[in-house]
Structures are given as structure tokens and as C-alpha cells.
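Key result, reporting period 2: structure in, sequence out.
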């Protein structure tokens, strides 16, 4: 993007910020918003408060106060991001993305810091972990929410929490519970997902899966090989039985004597003829950076064990492996309708990599991991302001490509524009692609009958011709958008 392109986005940048004006109660706090966002969108090497403030010619202390102590509604700012996405970016199949990210930290004062698993480094390290919900829709993607994971050690030391400004109502919650809370918040803002996908850290939590199913949400979950179940459900009885000849008969739902026990997924793959003898089928999936990749899949219906160790309702089980990665096998479960094609489930499962793209962009380009404060409020405001910066950058990049992005319109969002101009999302259809044929690619949603244009076994056609929306997964050039 050259200087002329950069200059052309300045009016849109200020118009965009105007959509968040009602999140600030006074001009002093509101005037800091463009300073902070311009710093994040700049080409500074470090996007922490001091270098951003100095680059803008303001006192670092004033920008520190903007994060930690000035009165403004950062939760409303987060909600506004979700409202904008809900009203302007749901023009294709929507896939919700749940994941966590970690940031290495020194010392003991940063809220939530402790020695714990740091996925960024691949080892246990002193770090902060945050849980996020994102979205992928056509060529559009962004993060919608983020929360601090508060370790139990912090929760048990409320004096330490108060010193870091962590409210008493913020307590330890498992990561899956944080993710469920974020899902409920996003849905409350009018956003709906055709699918939700996540890794085995969340797929291994039955309570989480049951919570999503109770909300009528279709999901595709990567799960560990230790998950147990049956391909053919065993017989169950409620017939009374005696544990004591003189006692009252007990009535409890249980497996009939002699029925096979539940087996692990890897054991089913190795020994059960329905999986063992099923040939691998190949599907071409666009990996967005290195061209089409080929996956081999086996697909059956599984009855996983429920909370009582009994067979649950039948769901999809996909056993998948990348052709170039040999015996590295992944397992996916899904509660989608039985008629959902294998290719659709595989495509949803592999869409999860786009949340990693969001993390990479926000850390490398916007400084999401550059926060140096010691207060909970400051950390949460930094996370939410990064959501605002990333949404603008994504909209600007799509607009530069000539695609529908909404960057030049405030239509349909609270706080600006004509609410009557909101467009109705088109479910099950990908947006037209710039530079392509302009043909809409039919992608079946989880709640609709499967279409016919899906990846086929050994299909030689690239993903653009299979019915799944392509995605140009290129790094977000925020330095080109420096304002």
C-alpha cells in the first residue's frame, strides 16, 4: 500500500473510530483511542504504551492512565466489535474458532502470571494465558472476545488478586467454561455460527460439548485418542437387580451382562473391523499458504460414553491423517446431522488454523503480547483495543482487494450509520471472490441438507472448484496501514 492508499484510508479510520464514541464518557478518554490504535497499526518495533506515546508526542503516563484508571466502558467496546461483525460480515458460512494463547512474562506482578504450559514456547514457562473466541467467514476472520485465565494459585490468594486489580467476582474457571461464557456473550450480540470448532483441549471436556449441544450449536471437535465409545451400541437394561438376597431390588440403568466394554478411539481404529477394514478416502483441502493438501479420512458413527459410562447418542467420528505426515492421526467428533458429508466435517475441522493466523497477526503486527502493565483492567482493555485495531485492519485489507468489507460504511451498527441498511446474512453461500469467476460456492451449513459441490475422493480439482470457500491466508500487512 503506497502513500496515496494510506491517505485514502484516513477518513475511514476516523469514521470507524466514531462508531465507538459512546463507549467513552468524556472527551479526555475518547481522545486517547486514536492515539492507541494508531500506535498498534504503526510500524513501531514495540507496541507497548511508552513507545506508542512517544511516537504520538504525548506523555506516556496519560496513555497508561487511559488503560488502567480513566473511566470508560471497555466491555461495551468489545460488544461493539461483535455487533459490527454480526451486522456486516456474515455473508458466508460462519465458523466459530475457540483457542487459547500464551505470552511469556517476567516477574510475578502481571495478572494471572505463573509457571504453566506456554503453547507459544511449547514448554512450561512463566506466562499469562488468555482464552479467545474468533470467527472465520469467507476471506474474513477476526477475534471477537478474549479473557484472562486465572490460575487456581491466584484464585486462592485474593490479596494478590486485589493488588492486581482483579475483582472479587473474577475467580478460577476452567478454560472450557470461559469459552462457553464468551460464546453466550457473542450470541447475545446477534452473532450466529453455522459451526464451532476447537482443539482437543476443549474437545476432551464432555461438559463443554454437552453445553454447546444444549444450545443447539453444531460443532466439530478434535479429541484425544483416549476418548471411549462403541461403534455398535451395547444393550442397556433398567431391570431391577439384587445386591443382597434380603434387600430391596435396585433399579439402575446399566449395561447388560456380557456386553462389550467401551474402547478407546485408537483401539477401535486398530481392531474394530468397521474402522480397521474401511479404506482411507482422500480429500483435497486448501491449506491457504502452500497450496492444496491431501488428507485421508475414515468416517463412522460413534456412541461415546456418557457421564454414567453408558452409550450416548450417535455422533460423527472422523479419523484423519495428512498424507505427507504418515501415521500422525487426528480424531474428530461432531454432533452435526447424520447426513452431513465427510468433506464438510473435515473442512470445518481444518478451518481451526485460522485462529492461529489471528494470533500471529495480532502479536506480530499489533502488539497483543506487548502489554507491560500490572493491572487486570489494563490487560483487558489492551486485549479489547487490539480487537478494534484488528477488525479495522482486516476490513481495510479486504477493501484494498476490492471485496465486500464494510470499511466505508457504518450501516447497521449501533453508534453510527443507518440501522435500516443492515443486510441479511446469506447462510450456506460463500461471498464472491475478487479476481475469480464471481460464482458463489455452495457450502452446506450444519443445519441444511448437504449440497453436491463438495470435495470428492481423490478429487484433482483445487478447493476453489469443490464448493468450499477459498481463503487467502496471507500475513496481515498492518505496517502498510500505519496511520
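The corresponding designed sequence is given below.
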Amino acid at each position: 500500500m503506497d502513500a496515496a492508499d494510506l491517505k485514502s484510508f484516513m477518513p475511514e479510520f476516523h469514521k470507524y473510530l466514531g462508531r465507538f464514541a459512546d463507549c467513552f464518557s468524556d472527551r479526555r478518554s475518547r481522545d486517547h483511542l486514536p492515539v492507541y490504535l494508531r500506535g498498534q497499526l504503526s510500524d513501531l518495533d514495540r507496541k507497548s504504551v511508552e513507545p506508542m506515546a512517544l511516537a504520538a508526542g504525548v506523555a506516556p503516563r496519560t496513555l497508561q492512565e487511559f488503560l488502567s484508571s480513566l473511566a470508560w466502558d471497555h466491555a461495551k467496546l468489545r460488544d461493539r466489535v461483535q455487533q459490527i461483525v454480526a451486522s456486516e460480515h456474515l455473508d458466508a458460512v460462519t465458523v466459530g474458532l475457540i483457542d487459547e494463547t500464551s505470552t511469556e512474562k517476567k516477574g510475578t506482578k502481571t495478572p494471572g502470571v505463573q509457571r504453566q504450559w506456554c503453547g507459544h514456547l511449547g514448554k512450561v514457562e512463566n506466562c499469562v494465558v488468555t482464552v479467545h473466541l474468533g470467527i472465520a467467514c469467507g476471506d474474513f476472520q477476526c477475534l471477537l472476545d478474549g479473557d484472562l485465565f486465572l490460575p487456581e494459585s491466584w484464585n486462592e490468594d485474593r490479596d494478590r488478586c486485589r493488588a492486581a486489580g482483579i475483582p472479587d467476582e473474577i475467580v478460577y474457571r476452567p478454560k472450557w467454561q470461559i469459552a462457553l461464557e464468551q460464546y453466550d456473550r457473542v450470541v447475545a450480540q446477534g452473532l450466529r455460527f453455522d459451526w464451532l470448532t476447537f482443539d482437543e483441549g476443549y474437545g476432551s471436556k464432555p461438559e463443554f460439548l454437552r453445553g454447546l449441544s444444549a444450545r443447539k450449536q453444531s460443532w466439530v471437535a478434535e479429541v484425544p485418542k483416549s476418548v471411549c465409545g462403541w461403534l455398535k451400541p451395547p444393550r442397556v437394561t433398567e431391570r431391577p437387580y439384587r445386591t443382597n438376597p434380603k434387600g430391596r431390588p435396585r433399579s439402575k440403568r446399566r449395561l447388560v451382562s456380557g456386553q462389550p466394554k467401551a474402547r478407546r478411539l485408537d483401539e477401535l481404529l486398530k481392531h474394530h473391523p468397521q474402522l480397521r477394514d474401511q479404506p482411507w478416502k482422500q480429500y483435497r483441502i486448501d491449506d491457504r499458504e502452500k497450496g492444496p493438501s491431501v488428507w485421508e479420512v475414515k468416517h463412522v458413527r460413534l456412541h461415546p460414553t456418557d457421564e454414567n459410562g453408558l452409550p450416548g447418542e450417535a455422533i460423527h467420528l472422523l479419523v484423519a491423517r495428512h498424507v505427507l505426515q504418515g501415521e500422525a492421526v487426528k480424531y474428530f467428533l461432531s454432533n452435526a446431522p447424520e447426513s452431513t458429508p465427510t468433506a464438510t466435517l473435515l473442512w470445518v475441522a481444518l478451518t481451526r488454523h485460522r485462529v492461529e493466523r489471528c494470533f500471529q497477526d495480532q502479536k506480530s503486527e499489533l502488539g497483543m503480547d506487548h502489554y507491560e502493565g500490572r493491572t487486570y483492567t489494563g490487560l483487558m482493555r489492551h486485549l479489547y483495543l487490539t480487537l478494534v485495531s484488528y477488525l479495522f485492519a482486516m476490513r481495510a485489507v479486504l477493501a484494498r482487494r476490492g471485496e465486500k468489507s464494510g470499511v466505508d460504511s457504518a450501516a447497521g451498527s449501533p453508534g453510527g450509520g443507518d440501522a435500516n441498511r443492515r443486510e441479511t446474512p446469506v447462510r450456506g453461500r460463500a461471498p464472491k471472490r475478487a479476481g475469480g469467476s464471481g460464482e458463489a460456492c455452495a457450502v452446506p451449513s450444519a443445519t441444511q441438507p448437504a449440497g453436491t459441490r463438495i470435495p470428492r475422493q481423490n478429487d484433482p480439482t483445487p478447493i476453489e472448484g469443490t464448493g468450499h470457500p477459498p481463503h487467502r491466508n496471507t500475513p496481515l500487512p498492518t505496517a502498510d496501514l500505519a496511520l
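Confidence is low (pLDDT under 50) at residues 405-472, 477-482. The longest strand covers residues 123-137. This case is discussed further under Risks and Mitigation.
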